[in-house]
Design a protein that fits this description.
CATH architecture: 3-Layer(aba) Sandwich
CATH superfamily: P-loop containing nucleotide triphosphate hydrolases
CATH class: Alpha Beta
Helix content: 25-40%
Strand order of the largest sheet: 5-6-7-3-8-9
Shape: globular
CATH topology: Rossmann fold
Radius of gyration: 18 Å
Structural class: alpha/beta
Distance between the termini: 47 Å
Number of domains: 1
Bound molecules: adenosine-5'-triphosphate, magnesium ion
Amino acid sequence: MPEARTFGSDMAAGMLEEGGEAGAHCAAGDEGAMPSNQASGRAARGDAASELLPIELENVDYAIGGTTVIEGLNLVLAEGPLTVLMGPNGAGKTMLLRLLQGLVAPTSGRITWGGTLLSRQKRVRLGLVFQKPVLLRRSVAANIAFAVGLRGRVRAGEVRAHLAAFDLAALSDRPARGLSGGEQQRLALARALALAPRVLLLDEPTASLDPASTRLIERHVLEAARNGIKIVFVTHDIGQARRLADEVIFLHRGRICEQSPAKHFFERPQSAAARAYLAGEILA
Ligand SMILES: Nc1ncnc2c1ncn2[C@@H]1O[C@H](COP(=O)(O)OP(=O)(O)OP(=O)(O)O)[C@@H](O)[C@H]1O
Ligand SMILES: [Mg+2]
């Protein structure tokens, strides 16, 4: 069953998806101060062996096709703040999520999850919704049922409840791959949350959604964060970043320009690159 194999390898990869100025050339290590924990209601913690946080990157480089696309990254993703990752096209946001997910290994440097390398036990609690979702060639309901089944026994009404929460109940029997782009994004997030992740990495999950669906996703993301799921959310939408972020990481040319509490980032961005980005200028 090739489809199941694809699914299985996705699971093995971690989650049910496919899978000029000083500031404009951000130096490694010039990120701002880490905010203290701001979100509350921490739940969903695992024991030490399955604990994923903090995720720590030390001097991480990643090169592909002879080009270094992630350079000298030092980063701590800690329990607490909802982290929004911003930066212009090609900055390395998707690549960083792939590194955080353990889908690719650093060319040099080191990443640890809760103080150790990424074990299978940890990996299954690390969810990723890709920029382009990849769904099983099954019905909408079967996509959710499979995810719930991987986590444990499927209780009566559970699949329906997940679908209803994402306004997908009416599409329950439709082939998942026949859904519109926005509907697929909603299903991808519903499926990722159905797996009860500890950490959820979201790569522009509302890029093709209408305003109502965008707000629905944002509500679920905020609720997940309140329930103790560590969220890393990539977006180009500055309004959305303001609505969601406790902290912002700004990436440019594969380097972190700053990691700041959201309020500081939007009111007083430290780097020229972030100031230019927020002003709508094209970054060289
Ligand atoms: N398979 C690949 N081969 C060569 N270069 C790649 C490959 N994948 C990504 N890159 C390059 O790595 C850099 C970072 O890409 P990445 O997809 O992480 O950017 P991004 O910040 O997510 O951009 P966007 O906002 O457009 O999604 C880009 O310059 C991209 O061209
Ligand atoms: Mg991207």
